[in-house]
Amino acid sequence: MTSDFGRISIREFSIYSPSSWIPAAFYNCGPGYTNGVRNPAATEEEARNAQVYLFENPDGEKVLSKLDFMCKVHDTETAFA
Known about the structure:
Blueprint: E1 33-34, E2 37-38, H1 44-48, E3 54-56, E4 62-64, H2 66-79
Antiparallel strand pairs: 1-2, 3-4
């Protein structure tokens, strides 16, 4: 696992923070992740305005990460319902 965006990683690990034990991916997938940063106190506006990861396909075209998009939708629809 690495710390690059777009790869699954354990970022900001702390033995005292159980949510940091779960891997995060892209910009919005992982406990407390919004816009690529572990921020459990993110506001609804920050979550709704968060970036969605873009892959570059072999043709050089940028393609939206469906997984990251679904994580963002999940966060905004459940955390702020």
